[in-house]
Amino acid sequence: MSGVVGILLCAGGSTRMGFDKLLTPIAGKTAIERSLEALLRGGVERIIFAVSPSSKAFVESLAVPVPSDIVSGGATRAESVKHALEFLRLHQGAEIVAIHDAARCMVPPSAVRESIECARQFGSGVVAAKTADTTMLIGSDGVPVPLERDRLVRMQTPQTFRFDEILRAYEGDLTKATDDCSLYLAAGYVPHFVFVAGEAVNQKLTSADDWQLALATYAHFGTGFDTHRLVEGRKLILGGVEIPFEKGLLGHSDADVLTHAIIDALLGAASLGDIGRHFPDTDPAYKGADSLELLKETARMIRLAGYSIGHIDATVIAQRPKLAPYWQSMRTRLAEALEVERGAVSLKATTTEGMNDEGKGLCISASAVASLY
Ligand code: MG
Questions:
Q1: Which stretches make up the 2-C-methyl-D-erythritol 2,4-cyclodiphosphate synthase domain (predicted)?
Q2: Does the chain have fewer CB atoms within 10 Å around its N or its C terminus?
């Protein structure tokens, strides 16, 4: 018999949002992967995935570090759980079963752990949340009836039970059940609730708002910094714009210091290394390279890694020339290369009041911060 088995429900259709919410990466990882990680970190020792035809191939491709099986989901959530429980009954059984909706991918591992502990002790551990909003029940006559807020509880997942008890509960009428706890209750058991930190983010990805919350939860930030020497006989290019000046920046590529700092910030936010790793200055391919092309390539890598670009904020550190007349064209060119709105690119400049090498006109530096979702 297995000890603690997780049933991960990956069969929910997700046509409501216009894309597959379970299979679309959120900052590099899908909801299925995030939920799986939380279950494993919370102490689950074996996983049964209930999948739909659309999620099956993806789930099969996952490297799961514990024993795992895949069963076909049903037409409803309850049917999917039933399939998984039946499979488990025929294949080794379990002591404790933690049932979790993959769409609740922001569940803290501590919630999983506490739910399992509670089920060990009391037979069940249902992650639940109190409600802060005044809640009313609309009567059959259309008149709302205020409910006693302090006694209201919203069910989340995981919902964890002793295997034999939840198996028995699933012999009941599945047609009206929207969660496991309702069936458990209908079978005559009294569920134990677990109230944990993190209930506010343990939302099911249902609406566009939930999706935004998930993106914000997993925002990543990166910083970048670069310096190039100012010399005679070179063009000065900043943010992809040629700026008339008596000197230009020295470098293997076009030495666009601003764009380089932005590239490093983006790569950093995605943990993809730095500009030197992807576009080495020893590679003749990048001699005289247009840095905006490198920026485009960086944006492509970032998207491939499952991120979307949130915002860029960059500062150019230069004593001269005055850059203000060029800001808008730089922002436009950078935004076009990144395929983002111009409002997502913020540019600033500072002098060093004549101090440091920038202040003495020996070089120009730039720093940047990027956020990715
Ligand atoms: Mg550079």
A1: 221-372
A2: N
